[in-house]
Amino acid sequence: MSNDRFQFVKDAIKDLQDRGVFRKLKVIMDRQGAVCNIDGKRVINLSSNNYLGLTNHPKMVKASIEAIKKYGVGAGAVRTIIGTLKIHEELEKKLAKFKGVEAALVFQSGFCANQGVIGTLLGEGDLAISDELNHASIIDGLRLTKATRTIYKHADMNDLEARLKEGAAQGFKKIMIITDGVFSMDGDVAPLDKIYELAKKYNAITMVDDAHGSGVMGEGKGTVHHFGLSKVWDIQMGTLSKAIGCMGGYIATRKDIRILMEHRARPFLFSTSHPPAVTASCIAAVEVMSSQEGKKLVKKLWENAKYFKEGLNQLGFNTGNSQTPITPVIVGEGALAMKLSDELFRNGVFAQGIAFPTVPRDKARVRTIVTANHTKKDLDIALDKFEKVGKKLGII
Ligand SMILES: *Cc1c(COP(=O)(O)O)cnc(C)c1O
Fold first, then answer.
1. Phi first, then psi: what are they for 235, rounded to 5°?
2. What does the pLDDT average to over 29-33?
3. Cα–chain center distance at 105
4. DSSP string over 311-367
5. Would the CB of 106 count as within 6 Å of ligand 1?
6. Among residues 264, 273, 259, 272, which one has the least CA distance to residue 119?
7. Averaged over 329-345, what is the pLDDT?
8. Is the pLDDT of residue 20 over 80?
9. Does residue 135's CB lie within 6 angstroms of at least one atom of ligand 1?
10. How many Cα atoms are found within 13 Å in the side-chain-facing hemisphere of 139?
11. Strands, DSSP E only, in 47-118?
């Protein structure tokens, strides 16, 4: 045995290097945008979650600066002690209205929102049925509860029903079905309509993680709205960190669930609330989303997504089952995905390579996300580079 107590760290790093998946963090030298300076190079950015370009929206910047002047830079306490500002509640009212639900509760991040809601609603004697491709924050949220967990095959309604049947027979106190709305690595959409029908049949609670659906699906109102289920779906988790352009997560749900979470959700109880600047810019974002401008941005996002996806498909790339602005280019081996990403970067296009354990070992990919801010010319240049590099590496 080595005397070095941290030999295991060195070994783990070496293992990453040996597998060709060791990465240095890429650094933006100016600001998040459709085209930006990454590590000193001007590139077309195809990896951000800034779907609508709101990270730099003048109204949000202005709201944020004004809030700092008016309220200072910090909230000063957790929400349940004395860290609730009037603007925190204003944001929640606006979000609930935007989502067409009774109530909303904001958390520090989407990650915290998942931890908060799952831990509040599930405990010993309950069953959680979770899609196999659900986000890490759901997996961790479930690990923190004493609920029994079972995983259904990705978007497979027969498998989901089999597990519901089994759960019902075993006499769990309650059963919750949890799914991503838009799956973050594949860009496919969960069949919420079918999930809702099954939930009704087995009297299960429905929860969706709509981090990649908020601001994108259903005219920006999310995947539940897209399926026309706003009045009947139990719990929608959303993020303010992606399309909304800033930071935070929320639960859009019934009034009584909100009240219970106020008392029980651990990140809400034990971690300080958002600084005023964050909250004020989120309020401005919801206002933009609710306006004609917001509708236009969502429309442009989808036009760009369709154009780019069709372009990649015409070139012969495998884009899996993507139905949204998240379009993976699946190449197989982790090392090949990293090589594709590196070569693209050299050619002025940034698209992050993603390998195991984030995706299955044989499904490594470069993931692309176009935004409303990309011009057609940006997309044409990017497609051109994909063709050049894809041929060079023998992918197409
Ligand atoms: C990004 C993401 C989260 C976490 O949201 P943050 O606001 O960034 O913490 C949760 N779920 C899914 C599916 C995500 O993609």
1. -135, 120
2. 96
3. 17
4. HHHHHT---TT--SSEEEEEEESHHHHHHHHHHHHHTTEE--EE-TTTS-GGGEEEE
5. no
6. 264
7. 95
8. no
9. yes
10. 9
11. 103-107
Percent of the chain with pLDDT over 70: 99
Q: Is 388 a catalytic residue?
A: no
The DSSP call for residue 240 is S
Q: How many residues does the chain have?
A: 396
| Mean pLDDT, all residues of the chain | 96
C-alpha span between 60 and 281 (Å, rounded): 4
Atom of ligand 1 nearest to the CA of 240: 7
Atom of ligand 1 nearest to the CA of 137: 10
pLDDT at position 7, please?
A: 95
Q: What is the pLDDT of residue 22?
A: 83
End-to-end CA distance of the chain: 47
Q: Are 126 and 205 in contact (CB under 8 A)?
A: no
pLDDT in tens, 212-236: 999 999 999 999 999 999 999 999 9
Query: Which residue's CA lies nearest to atom 5 of ligand 1?
Result: 110
**Coil, strand, or helix at residue 5?**
coil
Instruction: Please give the distance, rounded to the nearest whole angstrom, from the Cα atom of residue 168 to the centre of ligand 1.
Output: 30
* 95 sits in which H/E element: helix 86-99
Closest CA to 306 of 330, 328, 321, 325: 325
| Distances 171 to 175, 226, 257 between C-alpha atoms, Å | 10, 33, 23
Ligand 1 near 239 CB (within 6 A): yes
The yes-or-no answer on residue 173 being catalytic is no
Whether 145 lines ligand 1, by a CB cut-off of 6 Å, is no
